[in-house]
Amino acid sequence: MSKAESLNVEALEGYDASMFDDDGRPKRTGTVWSTGAHIITAVIGSGVLTLAWAIAQMGWIAGPIALIVFSLVTLFTSYLLADCYRAADGTRNYIYKDAVKNYLGGIKYKFCAIVQYSYLFGVTIGYSITTAISLVAMKKAICFHKHGHNHDCTLSNNPFIILFGLIEIVLSQVPNFHELAFLSYIAAIMSFGYATIGLGLSIAKVAEGRHVTTSITGKPIGKDYSAEEKMWSCFAAIGNIAFAYAFAVVLIEIQDTIRSGSLTESKVMKRASTAGIMISTIFYLSCGLLGYAAFGNDAPGNFLTGYGFYEPYWLVFTANLFIAIHLFGAYQVFCQPIFAAVEAWCGRVWPGNKLLSKKYKWWKLRLSPFRVVWRSLYVVFTTFVAMMLPFFNDFVGLLGAISFWPLAVFFPIEMYMVRTGVSRSSCRGLFLQVLSGFCLVASLLAAAGSVRGLIQSLGTFEPLQSRS
Where is the Amino acid transporter transmembrane domain (predicted)? Predict the structure, then answer.
């Protein structure tokens, strides 16, 4: 809605100015707490489960340093991005790609849209795979407890991927980001829950005193593990770490939920980002380092579903239940921008179309026939792709690699420089460009490692035969 349209709203019969913000949209109600919950939901996701494996590839020194560097870069660029929510004249950018369009325009806007929606689409597929693996792990926890750790408890992932899809069809009818706070609160609690359980189980395993091999440089080069394989594994580990900090893609959308008040939206967003990233980093370091200490160089790709832990089985069951509940909400955080973009485009192409505008009230939701059909088809499609591509670590690493530099570094830096008028030849401008170049190299290396891993996985891949 433009400013002129916002002002004209006052002429409408029954208009109550107190119910609307300065742009004419219904008042936003987001707080530091709800914003922080959205961030934690987006950040502490399935990425935490891969960090023990990532540390095992890089070792005691490079692994923690990589985690800390990525956290600091993410926090810094999230500050820059938060300042870009409002333009210099005070107008809002409602979604990430609109901010890029308004500040940078042209080819950069198109590139951003392709990368952002490709990433969001990929994350929803990744979360479908991860949730199914966790649901299978719940059944396997009971199976191993009953029949012993050597029993074959392998199950097909496909029924669980389908179950996840059916639940997401229902949750996808939540209209927009502004009404997702309840899901994010639940998901944030769940993420703390399973990260804490993983932490506790790792501490217990370390306390058992069983000998495991760890190293300053990670998994050692040997007869069955060449220097080339070591290099590619380290690159893939960088991608996994980058994925663990990928929330810039939805930062503007989250910031658009913050209510206007004594603090500007950017200050609230910065406080929430600081808290969310600091909490996430503490959990990441704890889970990654203790997971490596517990399993050594043979740390599984997913330390709660790779069956490094068998007992107490009920705790393993609970941790995987928490993962599944968290990802039910996280899926929505990442697919809502796709839903909003498609629905806005259809509204522009077919203005006044009854199929698009008609609403039915069901319980507390306002259901739209178009929304029900289109969002359901989207979930069905991502569910099918998840059954076709059941790869976890390499898929997660590739998503992190292709999105981290453009969405979390390049565009925030470029938009901030345009908004504040920073000269490229100034000390600040040079620093920002060097930072962007460094992150580009890291993303390219991570992408190369993950692509190689995917190619190797495809060598033994059978469509629709995913098992764990």
Answer: 28-455
Q: Which domain holds residue 403?
A: 28-458
Domain-embedded: residue 13: no
Q: Residues with Cβ < 8 Å from 26, sequence gap 6 or more?
A: 19, 20, 178
Is 20 part of a structural domain of the chain?
A: no
What separation in angstroms does the CA of 144 have from each of 28, 311, 466?
A: 49, 9, 20
Whichever domain contains 334, its CATH number is: 1.20.1740.10
Distance CA 386, CA 380 (A): 10
Give the model's confidence band at 44: pLDDT under 50 very low, under 70 low, under 90 confident, else very high: low
- Asked if residue 453 belongs to a domain, the reply is yes
Contact 218, 63 (CB under 8 A): yes
Phi-psi region of 24 (alpha: psi -120 to 50; beta: other; left: phi over 0): left
Q: Would you give the DSSP letter of residue 259?
A: P
In this predicted model, what pLDDT tens digit does every residue of 127-143 receive, in sequence order?
888 888 888 888 888 88
The answer to whether the beta carbons of residues 315 and 201 sit under 8 Å apart is: yes
The per-residue pLDDT for range 159-171, each reduced to its tens digit, is: 999 999 999 998 8
Q: Is 312 helix (H, G, I), strand (E, B) or coil?
A: coil
Mean pLDDT along residues 277-300: 84
User: At 141, is the secondary structure helix, strand, or coil?
Assistant: helix
Look up tokens 């340093």; give the residue.
65
Residue tagged 């709203």 (tokens): 9
- If you search the block for the tokens 């997401």, which residue do you land on? 168
Which residue is associated with the tokens 């939805």?
250
247-256 tens-digit pLDDT = 777 788 888 8
DSSP conformation class of 426: S
Tell me if 383 sits within 8 A of 389, measured CB to CB.
no
> C-alpha angle with apex 360: 359 to 361, nearest 5 degrees?
125
Structure tokens at 263: 């603090």
pTM of the model: 0.79
Tell me how crowded residue 6 is: count the other CB atoms within 10 A of its CB.
15
User: Does residue 14 form part of some domain?
Assistant: no
